[in-house]
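We examine the record.
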Amino acid sequence: MSVHRAARSQIPEGVFEANGVKIHYLITGTGSSVILLHPFAASADTWQDAIRDLSRDHRVIAPDARGHGKSDKPHDPKRYGVEMANDVVRLMDHLGIAKAAIVGYSMGGSVAIKTLIDHPDRFRVAVIGGSLGFTRYDSEHDETPRLGPDLLSGRTLSEAMLASAPPNFPKPSPQQRELMKRMDAAQDPIALGAETVSHAGLWVEDAQLAAIRIPTLIINGGEDRPAFFLEARRKFPNLQFETVEGLGHGPAMASPAFLKSVRAFLDAH
């Protein structure tokens, strides 16, 4: 493994090959291993605060998912799906990690759940934010069915998101437009589209979720599909649940309460 200093984050980083796709990751700290899986259209840098906190007493590894960050960005949807879950185990094997904690948010949470189900012997504890996995009935982008095809057609991420927004969605301000341009510059829209249409390979069933025996905490924002997560508490008594009140999907992950809950759950297990 070649490890050097990342210019932006100042966190050691490495690269390995996962079935022909180069995966970039950040790695720092010592102790029991914790793997962090980021949301859609983000990167390992999303976890900066969590890495700083958890690396005080853990070995923290945060990969860029294929199609994201500094990892390779295939344009073939067949290179995504379950391959994203397999990448987690491949990274563990590459680093010689027999068992780890896993933390994922949104897309990363869905990938983490699939990994837990397929490889339960490799994980000791899990924290999943804003997700209960991709299913045939509920996938992260079901509410925006045009997003994947729009991205695959070459539209920028911001253009595709605006096209998929509901009719009453407010138009972005000039300042928001500028932020969107910067966001677009960091993305490969066709790779993101390929990931978006590949979720069938990551689908999980209710019976599989109910069979999880690894200590698992689900965290959701109070404004993030509250009825969905309330029903999940009834359906999956084997899982623990916490709500970050008053916050939506993205803000919940960015809140100090989310990291506090992650830290507390890892410390307890």
Notes: Residues 82-95 form the longest helix (14 residues). The beta strands are 4-5, 12-18, 21-28, 32-37, 58-63, 100-105, 123-129, 216-221, 240-244.
